[in-house]
Amino acid sequence: MPIVMTALLSFAGTNIDDILILTLLFSRAETAADKWRIILGQYLAVLTLTFFSLFFGYSISFVPHAYIGLFGLVPILLGLGAVRQLRNKGRDQSQQTDKAQREPGRLRQFLEKIFPADILYVYFLTLANGADNVSVYIPLFTNLGAGEIITIIVIFVVLIGVWCFLGMKIGQYPLIKVFLEKYKDMLIPLVFIGLGLYILLKSGTFGLLLAG
Asked: Which Pfam families does the entry link to (predicted)?
């Protein structure tokens, strides 16, 4: 049960803002095919971030867990950074939008031969918004066994579908959309800081910090 809650919290904390993006994308979808392309792009992006984090986490698995647990400071810093942004909201919004929509260059030209452009749009948009995913997933995976990792990946696969479903439906319920737009800036730091503290506790890093 704890691993299920960990998966739910880590996914929700790193993808809560994707619901708003998906809501806007689905609101522009005119056909069922358009919706399936959005879903496929979202799956490809989140799973790319997940497996990249898993590979990188495995490559440093020889490092003692207490030291790896220091990565738990990253989501805490992300949470504190989000708190800081609450005090300076709106300053960098235009810069972030430009960065998310920046042309990926040759990589995109190559991938467009394999996937339709609208799938790539969702894919790169989600990747551009996924730095926090990697920062949270790497320390999470390095502290888990194979069975726990498989459980988390299965839960993530299910939750991506749930996220896409919510993105399609939220536009039909304006009050929910308004609630997320209003409170997501407060929910994100709470989830990140809580997850970071959990990683520090699980890996025994608190003892390392106190001993130092």
From this structure: Cad (PF03596)
Nearest Cα to 185, choosing from 93, 50, 123, 102?
Answer: 93
Sorted by sequence, the CB contacts under 8 Å of residue 122 that are 6+ apart come out as 25, 37, 38, 40, 41, 42, 45
What does the pLDDT look like over 10-24, one tens digit per residue? 898 888 878 877 887
Q: What is the pLDDT of residues 25-84, one digit of tens each?
A: 787 777 888 889 999 999 999 999 899 888 876 666 566 656 666 767 777 887 787 788
Q: Rounded to 5 degrees, what angle do the CA atoms 51, 52, 54 make?
A: 60
Which sequence spans correspond to the domains of the chain? 2-211
∠ CA 95-16-122, rounded to 5°: 60
The whole model's pTM is what? 0.63
Contact 111, 44 (CB under 8 A): no
Q: Please tell me the distance from the alpha carbon of residue 109 to that of residue 31, in angstroms, as a whole number.
A: 25
Taking only the tens place, the pLDDT of each residue in 109-144 is 555 555 556 788 788 877 766 767 877 888 888 778
Enumerate residues 6+ apart whose C-beta is below 8 A from 212. Answer: none
